[in-house]
């Protein structure tokens, strides 16, 4: 056990009680073939973990796992679990693919879902589960060989990542009713942010609105872009520009006063921003 509670792959496998480790940088677990630790306080990992999980003969009581799900745990992420209250007779089925940061980082960095939170797991349709399970089974079969070929297992992990990206895009659309509410709330919160009773000292960030939606910043950003065609930062910038234009045209406030009222730290930042977005300075716009 690591004294810092940040585990490498070998340390984490030992902590879980997993047998059959063959490589310090790579491991494939089949959950129903192992008797794993059922409870853990918060621990940190220093590797990537792709997990396909499903409770058989009844869902766990700790989560609503009525569908098989998959997600990616990343280096330095904190994990915590408690399966002690699982439904009687149920057991965890699926696979875990653990890969060192050095091996998988070149592939992971192109996908925004790598920073999604655990509660933003990807819930799979039956045909998606079948496809991903087939890839996990192939990776597991390769890992069982003596000797196994490390690049082949890593290539399966990379292929899993590409399918996860595709299936997350499907999940956004299949949960349209729920996510349209998130989009509508985003627009409402954006309007509310600039109301007179708000004492602004900074421009709003994507992270601010993501927190309002109880989502991670990247998941929120991908969701908004999926439904509107534009990332949330673009919506924020466009809204600020429209507010600035309205105040420049219909108020006697100075450019500096407008800049501070919109949350800019310095009027020069506002002038630079406005010119970048419109092609002219606030002063020139007001004179037109």
Core attributes:
single chain; 288 residues; alpha+beta; Jelly Rolls; Arc Repressor Mutant, subunit A; 5-stranded antiparallel beta sheet; 49% helix; elongated
Architecture overview:
The protein is an alpha+beta fold and 288 residues long. It has helices at 9-16, 101-108, 126-143, 150-174, 176-193, 206-212, 217-228, 232-250, 255-261, 267-278, 282-287; strands spanning 6-7, 26-30, 39-45, 47-56, 69-73, 78-82, 91-100, 122-123. The protein folds into two domains: 6-174, Jelly Rolls; 177-287, Orthogonal Bundle (Arc Repressor Mutant, subunit A). Helices cover 49% and strands 16% of the residues. Strands 2-7-4-5-8 form a five-stranded antiparallel beta sheet. Strands 1-3-6 form a three-stranded mixed beta sheet. Helix 6 packs across helix 7 (217-228). The longest helix has 25 residues, at 150-174.
């Amino acid at each position: 056990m690591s004294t810092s509670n940040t585990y490498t792959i070998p340390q984490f496998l030992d902590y879980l009680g997993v047998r059959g480790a063959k490589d310090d940088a790579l491991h494939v677990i089949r959950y129903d073939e192992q008797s794993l630790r059922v409870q853990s306080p918060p621990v940190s990992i220093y590797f990537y973990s792709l997990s396909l999980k499903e409770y058989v003969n009844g869902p766990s009581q700790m989560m609503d796992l009525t569908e098989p799900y998959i997600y990616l745990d990343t280096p330095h992420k904190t994990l915590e679990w408690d399966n002690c209250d699982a439904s009687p007779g149920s057991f965890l089925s699926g696979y875990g693919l653990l890969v060192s940061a050095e091996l998988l980082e070149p592939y992971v960095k192109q996908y925004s879902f790598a920073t999604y939170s655990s509660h933003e797991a990807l819930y799979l349709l039956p045909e998606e589960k079948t496809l991903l399970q087939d890839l996990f089974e192939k990776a597991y079969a390769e890992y069982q060989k003596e000797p196994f070929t490390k690049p082949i297992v890593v290539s399966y992990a990379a292929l899993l990542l590409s399918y996860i990206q595709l299936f997350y895009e499907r999940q956004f659309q299949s949960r349209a009713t729920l996510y349209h509410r998130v989009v509508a709330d985003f627009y409402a919160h954006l309007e509310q942010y600039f109301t007179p009773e708000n004492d602004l000292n900074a421009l709003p960030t994507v992270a601010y609105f993501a927190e309002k939606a109880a989502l991670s910043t990247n998941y929120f950003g991908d969701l908004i872009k999926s439904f509107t065609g534009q990332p949330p930062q673009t919506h924020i910038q466009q809204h600020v520009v429209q507010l600035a234009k309205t105040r420049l045209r219909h108020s006697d406030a100075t450019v500096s006063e407008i800049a501070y009222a919109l949350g800019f730290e310095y009027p020069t930042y506002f002038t630079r921003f406005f010119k970048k977005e419109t092609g002219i300075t606030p002063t020139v716009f007001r004179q037109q």
